[in-house]
Amino acid sequence: MKGERTVIRDSDSGGNSRPAVRSGEAQRLWSALDELGRGRGRIIEVVGEPGMGKTHLLSCLADEAARSSFTVASSRCTEFERNLPCQVFVQLLGTIPGLSSVRGETRREATRFRVYDAVRTMLRDRAQQGLVLILDDFHWADTTSQETVEYLLRIPVDAPLLLVVSQRTRQASTRLRSALAHAIDFGNAERIELAPLTVAQSAELLGQPVSSSTLRSLHAASGGNPARLELAFADKWHESQQPPAVDQPLPERFAAVLAGEIDALAPNFLAVARAAAVIGSRFTLDAIAEVAGIRRDEVCPAVSELIRRDLLRPISRTAAFTFRYPELRRQIHTTFDPCARAALHRRALAMLARQGAPATEQAVHIEQSLSALTEQDLRTLILAAREELQSSPHQAARWLHVALRVPVSQLRDENEQRDLLGLLTLVLGTGGKLGDKSDLVLGLRRLAPADPGPARSRVIAFCSLLQGYLGHRAAAQALLNQELESFPGPDVPAAAVPLLVQREVTKIFNEQMPELEQVQLILRAARKHGDRINEAGALALRALTQALTADPEDARISAEECASVVDALTDEVLCDHPEYVAMLGWAEGFLGFRTEAAGHFKRGASILPRCGRTFLKPIFLNGIAFCYVQSNRVSEARAMAAKAKQAALEEGGADLPILALALESWMLLLTEIRGERRALLTAEQAVNTVDAGNRPLSVLTTISLAIAARVEGDHRRATALLLTVGGGPDLRDIPPVMRPALYEMLTATAGDNSSPSPAEWAWLAASSARDVTLPMPRAFALMARAHVLHESPAVAADLYQEASCLFSSIGANWAQAWAMTYAASRIAADGRTPEAMTVLGYAEELALRAGASRLFENARQLRRELAAFDEEDEKEESEGVLSMLTVREREVAGIVGTGKKTREIAQELSVSPRTVDAHLTRIYRKLNISSRAALARLMAQAS
């Protein structure tokens, strides 16, 4: 043998390699092979629970032994050959002398020992060059074979023989186990026990990170059993592709392993096992007898046999039993006739009902019944759903799925219909992925009151909200249009108002902006009927529409009017439509009213559990994060965005994880000093995930990607993204309130020779903010104008400082620090370095307070460069016309003379572009020139 072997190859039919999760146990077998190569044999017992990987380990041993040129003989024992004496060794060695004498009922001791000795002799002869003998599933071996191994333990083969026996401890021969234990104590044998996998081994087996919470839950559920772990992982993957089914059949490769154990059962034993599987994970002898319809004295021996076969196991200190593994019960339950299975479930239900068992236990058997539901079944299911609603909404949904088998026409009891309707509403609004509950939404519509009116309208509006949330926008709008057809005539009845509000909300999902005239009509109708909650909805809708499409000043007035109505309503009233509070918050957020918006988002989020609308939580959490990131709470914003993303994934909203990704990208740029690459990748993920038909979300994600591209230095891409999403240079597809910010970016990323030029972009920024009284758009317009004033550093510095004051007025400390860093660079370019250093100190403090680490580092880096700049300024040289320039200024001037751009110069000198601009401003002033071309000519003459 050459060296140690620590890698296990997978020898299954697929031929794929898998991690060496049993490397320690494998190394002990490899060591035995090494010893065999030195002429020393050994007997090894490999033991472990079913599924622990004994067969796989032995298969790897056989492969390794064959590669090492040993003779390998292996056999797997089965119970069908237990009556054939010494059958295992016959299969491996051929005819055994004297064996025919022990085939009768009576066997003489001398004859038996002659057979044992004959096997020993044959093994000695075969093992002269090294023999590896592998006996798998030896707990099924015939008695003579087991006694032969016992004999070999007492009188070992005098040859290089490695005998490996694997068996299940619970089913192994007691006599052989005793003999092995004695041999192990004397050093004549060795035991390798396959213990449960550790979390790290489970991670390696499944190819998952050790830190994964999913991995840890699967490991705990499987008890570290490799086969059960792989099955649980396969089930988890299946559930991610489609809603989980109750007791769905095992995947074929797992089912095939268990099928052999089950198919070998005699009919009476199989009937008992099936009855037990129907009852559940825990059962008694009396329960099996009643469900199976057989006498108790017939159940006892059957259960004893099933325990002997390790299919059933007693539960300690109780009179109950359970299956070896839950997967075994599942295999038995899913593989016999459905009609026979349903009949057993009906018997189990009758037994539990008589015993007064909890409704949740009875519901399991109602679910598995194929017969029509009775009124008692329906009452039991409703009770079970109510009991599960708070602790397990998913389970409550499961029972309501079953209850909806009852046609609405058969729901004669109005109380039951009302209870079912209320429970459906709560289940759909509380917890779990809504994508798993589409049929419940349909059931909710069927249960809505038949006659048009406020009660029916509330149900239909809620169904439409759910459809839109799930991304079924066309279906949501069609549902509302169909319902509104039942209200003909020019007058708008009270029952139609919530439907009209919801229809306009759905338009936003469908890339259509609501018509303000229609919103005004809804508002008048709500006020006419004294409907304060839908008045708030209409006002919120108007404010949001105006913020996205119209004059921001009009949007501000509408938002303030809506806030006054919402703030006057109680939480109980808002519970009917918490989405109206979210619309108001987003309108205020887009307008820059971060404090007011955050307050409304927080209030809405706090009432969701009481409303049974927790599926809306990501909308509010994303809103809070949006407000925080634009204020001085960047770190909190990042944490809130992570919560929003997790909640969106749990709740199953169609678009909300995408919005969380866009916010995450933005915050990576602010909070991580070198996070631009991660931010770019996160933004790209968000953009690539957006549905092409979702215009609002496409705008937000594309803007986040453009910001990331700008910070990474890819100005051409940033400009292209903004022009594409904006619909051209006029940015007609961008909400007016957001245009100045985008024009600022276009000004900063435009090249010197681009069209439009930076100056033209700055003019468009100023034009778009001219009639806006909101601080944020005006601040971005000032920033854009300052960007192009290269030859007037003092004026540019004043504009940057004015912008920082506007940012400060709304608490946006990070933006204030950003503007003041720009201002400091222009102040320094104007020759006022001490003043610039003071401004940078203030910018650092603001960035630090906001948690914007990247902006803090930018300000600190500029301060370092200015300090170095002052040192160089003292070292002026006197040579010709350039004598008034410092060494660094002459270096910059020389590179400019070669035609390189500002960013290229900055990269070559390892400084920021702002520092290069500062040098150029001083050079122009000292040499009394005004352009790069003039400087290039001057440098050419000087050379």
Write structural notes for this entry.
With 943 residues, this protein is mainly alpha-helical. Among the domains are: 23-195, Rossmann fold (3-Layer(aba) Sandwich), CATH 3.40.50; 200-244; 646-855, Tetratricopeptide repeat domain (Serine Threonine Protein Phosphatase 5, Tetratricopeptide repeat), CATH 1.25.40.10; 875-942, Arc Repressor Mutant, subunit A (Orthogonal Bundle), CATH 1.10.10. The chain contains 46 helices and 7 strands. Strands 2-3-4-1-5 form a 5-stranded parallel sheet, with helices on both faces. Strand 3, helix 5 and strand 4 form a beta-alpha-beta unit. 49% of the residues are buried.
Q: Describe the global form.
A: flat
Give the percentage of residues in beta strands. under 5%
CATH structural class of the domain at 646-855: Mainly Alpha
CATH topology of the domain at 646-855: Serine Threonine Protein Phosphatase 5, Tetratricopeptide repeat
Number of helices: 46
Quantity of strands, as a count:
7
What would you report as the Rg, rounded to the nearest angstrom? Answer: 39 Å
Annotated CATH architecture of the domain at 646-855? Alpha Horseshoe
Q: Quick one: biggest sheet? A: 5 strands, parallel
- What is the average per-residue confidence, as pLDDT, rounded to a whole number? 84
Low-confidence stretches: 1-19, 874-879
Classified in CATH, the superfamily of the domain at 646-855 is Tetratricopeptide repeat domain
**Strand-pairing-aware structural class:** mainly alpha
Read across the widest sheet, the strand sequence of neighbours is 2-3-4-1-5
Distance between the termini: 77 Å
Give the helix proportion (percent range).
55-70%
